[in-house]
Amino acid sequence: MPGPGMEFIGDEEIEEVTALLREGYLFRHSVTLAGRRDARFQGKVYEAEKMFAERSRASHALALNSGTSALFASVAALGIGPGDEVIVPGYGFIGTYSSVLWAFAVPVLAEIDQTFNLDPTDAEARITPRTKAIMPVNMLGNPARLDELRAIADKHDIYMIEDCCQACGAVYRGKAVGTYGHTGAFSFNTYKPITSAEGGMLITNDEAVYERCYAIHDQGYAPGGDRSKIGENPVIGYDMKYTELQAAVLLAQLRKLDSILDRLRANKRRYKEVVGEIPGLEYRDITDEDGECGTVLGAVFPDEKTARAVAAELGTDVVDDSAWHVYGNMDHFMNQRMVWGDRTPWNHPLYLERGGNMEYHQGMLSQTDDLLRRSINISIGVADPGLGTQFGVTVLSDDAEIDANAARFGEVARKHLG
Predict the structure, then answer these.
(1) In terms of C-beta density within 10 A (0-12 exposed, 13-18 middle, 19 or more buried), how is residue 35 classed?
(2) pLDDT, position 34
(3) How far apart are CA 156 and CA 94, in angstroms?
(4) Torsions phi, psi for 107 (to 5 deg)
(5) Averaged confidence pLDDT in the chain
(6) From its phi and psi, is residue 74 left (phi > 0), alpha (psi between -120 and 50) or beta?
(7) What is the rounded distance in angstroms from the CA atom of residue 179 to the CA atom of residue 273?
(8) What is the DSSP code (8-state) at residue 240?
(9) Where are the beta strands (DSSP E) in 215-307?
(10) Residue 164 CB coordination number (10 Å)
(11) C-alpha separations of 284 from 184, 270, 306 in Å
């Protein structure tokens, strides 16, 4: 079972998709090359964007083909490029880093704290004259310390781009994640709270940024997708559009998002209550108990030996062993293997001229390494070996299954902590 949304695909999604297929018009835009509107157009993408913007209370929403594309469009639209640096956490996803690299900018790794998110103190310490943005990841559905991070960005006159790809629907101190940053990026792939198989969404309150993001995602066209206009195209784009078919699925999933999150949060509360207090066992710091997604329970042990013993007995891994989310395990990134065979952007003349000299190595983030080596992720709704969530429950688990699984975890934890 990947993410929660997949488990709730049903008649609503089928009806949305069927209605679209009956008309037979699947293009994202309503305007043909000749400038005429197709009467069969249903505007599913536009409807999904409108719904997402309204629930986020953002001025603009833009659907793209992935969360990584939403991050890249954000980076590029904010004018970040060769010679620039973006501060990112050492625990996130490869897409967080690659979105910066696609713009020929350089990711600067920073420590996480016990939220499993970007540590504000360490992030600020890594700001240089080359820094153009910080990119906190609201990891595993738990909002980062977004108010502190935004204050740091404002203090140093740099941008904040929120990676919300694992946190669709999360709220921090009364505001939707994604609205603390200059932009926010979301993912709808199969491991997320809701899904359209693939796809992403970008939100922003800046109209100029939205217009640039729109052009970047659609071959350079201005908002509206009218290809008959000449002389009004902002920039050359990259063609990262979302499809009507995906949007049809997403619309049905968005209507279910609140009920999915309510279920996840309730299941997580029950799980922790059954485990109870265990001396020596801590949990990931949650910045907003009512606002996080509740997809994962992060258990933190006093040392690596204990964590590994518990993980082995439960048939799972410590977080540090998860492949695609821990900086040191991303060998292609750590060894700077770009597709064109050289070290661009790390050796870009503009970067070198500005004093840039970035290399990555195992052990460079000691605080992050220590925390992840003695932590275990327990599934509440996301079963993903890449996150180390082989042990736990699902969004569909009933009380009996939750109680039995939590009791098993508590038994093993007490045994090794005793």
Answers:
(1) exposed
(2) 56
(3) 26
(4) -75, 135
(5) 95
(6) alpha
(7) 32
(8) -
(9) 282-283, 296-300
(10) 34
(11) 23, 16, 17
CA distance 408 to 275: 9
CA dihedral 78, 82, 86, 88 (to 10 degrees): 120
What is the predicted pLDDT for the residue at 230?
66
Separation CA 172–CA 27 (nearest Å) = 35
What's the CA gap between 37 and 22, in Å, rounded?
18
Contact predicate 32/40, CB 8 Å: no
- Strands in 85-89's sheet, in edge-to-edge order, are 60-64, 200-204, 183-187, 159-163, 131-134, 85-89, 106-110
The answer to whether the CB of 78 falls within 8 A of the CB of 65 is: no
Q: For residue 224, is pLDDT > 80?
A: no
Cβ contact 77:64 at 8 Å: no
Q: Per the structure block, which two tokens stand in for 164?
A: 């919300």
pLDDT in tens, 336-382: 999 988 889 999 999 999 999 999 999 999 999 999 999 999 999 99
**Residue 268 per-residue DSSP state:** H
CA contacts within 13 A on the Cβ side of 363: 0
DSSP 91: B
Nearest to 100 by CA among 149, 51, 161: 161
Query: Which SS3 state, helix, strand or coil, does residue 71 take?
Result: helix
Q: How many CB atoms lie within 10 A of CB 50?
A: 12
User: Hey, what are 191's tokens?
Assistant: 């491991």
Integer-rounded Cα Rg, in Å, for the chain is 22
Q: Percent of the chain beyond pLDDT 90? A: 87
| pLDDT tens per residue, range 236-265 | 999 999 999 999 999 999 999 999 999 999
In this prediction the pTM is 0.95
pLDDT given at position 229: 64
Q: CA-to-CA distance for 412 and 418, rounded, in angstroms?
A: 10
386 vs 372: which has the higher pLDDT: 372
For the chain, list the domains and their CATH numbers.
Answer: 4-253 (3.40.640.10), 258-324+365-417 (3.90.1150.10)
User: What letter would DSSP give residue 60?
Assistant: E
Higher local confidence (pLDDT), 263 or 224: 263
Please write the tens of the pLDDT for every residue from 270-299: 999 999 999 999 999 999 999 999 999 999
